[in-house]
Amino acid sequence: PYNPTARDTAAPGIPGPAEFRADVVAGLSAPRKTLAAKYFYDAEGSRLFDRICGLPEYYPTRTELDILRREAGAIAHRAGKNARLVEFGAGSLVKVRILLDALDLPAAYVPIDISADHLMEAAQALARDYPALDVVPLVGDFTRRVALPQIDGQRTVGFFPGSTIGNFTPSEARRFLVEARLTLGTGALLVLGVDLKKDVRRLEAAYDDAEGVTAAFNLNLLARINRELDGNFDLDRFAHAALFNEEESRIEMHLVSRADQIVRAADRTFRFAAGETIHTENSYKYASEDVAELARAAGWHTEQVWTDAQTLFGVFLLSA
Ligand code: AVI
């Protein structure tokens, strides 16, 4: 059986338990409390995120899938024969299969992800289904330039779906696009999925669903601190909030303290006033022109923008 081993890149910045502890202590000690969104995705958080992707209110996943299915042929045509597909984050197997099925004899699939377990699972599943494909998982931080291994093939095609770029600040997003261009090299393409700016009610509903799955996803961060840092957060004493910040053009998720309270975690105590929040996530929403401008500032040319009939979501085809 195929048993890929991660060809380890330098893999700097992989958050281990010590970094989680340090970030939680720093974030909860700050005058405006924060916890980084990257910590949502432990096993339970990843399971909840998968459920979010299927919620009626959460339009991005199904809308992007529709666009990818519709345009996969055009992407494949532009990519040409024997392309190497490089995915930033080993995300959804469903999405990458759409591209792999459309591409003309793809030479290689190179997923880059910080979570080795998740990466190996994805790599194994794809290697099984595409025996002719060279599957080369890389463990590492894809927000920084990665040295791609020498792999035969023609054009290099990057893939960054899901509007994960929206979880970066605009300046982080620009930096990511620069680093991705350096990783992929001259002549590369990048297929980038971005959630677009729209009606506030629609946006807020997508982050505060009726079933409460997004609330559970947000609160799981406190449960994770309880599990891993011996915390005593009472989850009933915090509320999920998701609001669109018009000025910054982003959905902000917060956990709102329902009372004055003192919580213990990581051998520290943290005081919360009633109504005080922990800011847990930003999800930026862009106009199409803003994405093209961001891409341009990072040295990319926007060749195509594909959207759905309601212009909820954009798939951008960039070239270096
Ligand atoms: C992963 N990321 C693109 C999601 C988003 O929409 O920003 C994370 C998420 N947070 C709440 N719901 C989904």
TrEMBL record:
Residues 20-319 form the Histidine-specific methyltransferase SAM-dependent domain. GO terms for molecular function: methyltransferase activity. InterPro entries: EgtD (IPR035094), EgtD_Methyltrsf_superfamily (IPR051128), MeTrfase_dom (IPR019257), MeTrfase_EgtD-like (IPR017804), SAM-dependent_MTases_sf (IPR029063). One of its GO terms (biological process) is methylation. Gene3D superfamilies: Vaccinia Virus protein VP39 (3.40.50.150). Signal peptide: none annotated. Keywords: Methyltransferase, Transferase. The keyword Nucleus does not apply. PANTHER family: ERGOTHIONEINE BIOSYNTHESIS PROTEIN 1 (PTHR43397). This is Dimethylhistidine N-methyltransferase. It comes from Aquabacter spiritensis.
